[in-house]
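As a next step, the fold was encoded as tokens, giving this record:
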Amino acid sequence: MRAILLAVVLASALPGEATAQTLDQAWAWCRGHDPDRLIRGCTAILRASRSPDDLARAFFDRGRAWIDLGKYDRAIEDLDRAIKLDPGYPDAFNTRALAKAGEGQYEQAIADFDEAIRLDPNYAVAIFNRGLALQTMGRTEEAAKDFARAKDVGPRLTQPKE
């Protein structure tokens, strides 16, 4: 019964193209780089899944797509949901910070970068991104410290979720 429901949900979420016939195909689209397919694949997963980890990942990936499309408000909504489901998800904080920076909310973005870095102290991308936000705000000395630290940190302590 669940497989039939999943097929119906996937078919309704992906009109107009060769629809994903399996959850694996929806995940492939959700983890991809084409924003339109990504949104459709992640939406199908959100409609079909009950696992908090799967939901957090799908909201995260759909948030990435909204950023790619310049729809920062929608990205923030999805990333808020990902963080609510998994408050220990440093990539979601980093990505939400990028959306907030896109909206010009640099102080809030820095707070999210700080949280991503607190969760994973060796998250060089978040450290570098925080430096960019600080630089945009004219806080060049702090930015320079972040750029140097991003260059010097070791491997991430928390691996990205797949």
User: Anything to note?
Assistant: The chain has two domains: 1-87, 88-162. The chain is about 75% helix and 0% strand.
